[in-house]
Design brief:
By secondary structure, the protein is mostly beta strands. The chain contains no helices and 5 strands. It has one domain: N-terminal domain of TfIIb, CATH 2.20.25. The protein is 0% helix and 27% strand. Strands 1, 2, 3, 4 and 5 form a 5-stranded antiparallel β-sheet that branches. Strand 1 and strand 2 form a beta hairpin. This is UPF0434 protein D6850_15735. InterPro entries: Trm112-like. It holds the Pfam family Trm112p.
């Protein structure tokens, strides 16, 4: 996903405060896919307009 002027960038400093809502463990940032990864749960949470959406219903399963 290419960043455009309409799409705010994700602030990487947020990673220090964000945790997986299910495991409460740190998340990995995938800049290319604009997702936060929770490997223990096998979920990838989307980042939309620079805002992480940490809802299991919105996450996709990791391959």
């Amino acid at each position: 996903m290419t960043e455009t002027p309409q799409t705010p960038a994700f602030d990487r400093r947020m990673l220090e405060a964000l945790v997986c809502p299910e495991t409460h463990q740190r998340l990995e940032y995938d800049a290319e896919a604009q997702e936060l990864l929770s490997r223990p749960t096998g979920l990838a949470y989307p980042i939309r307009n620079g805002i992480p959406v940490l809802l299991a219903d919105e996450a996709r399963k990791l391959d």
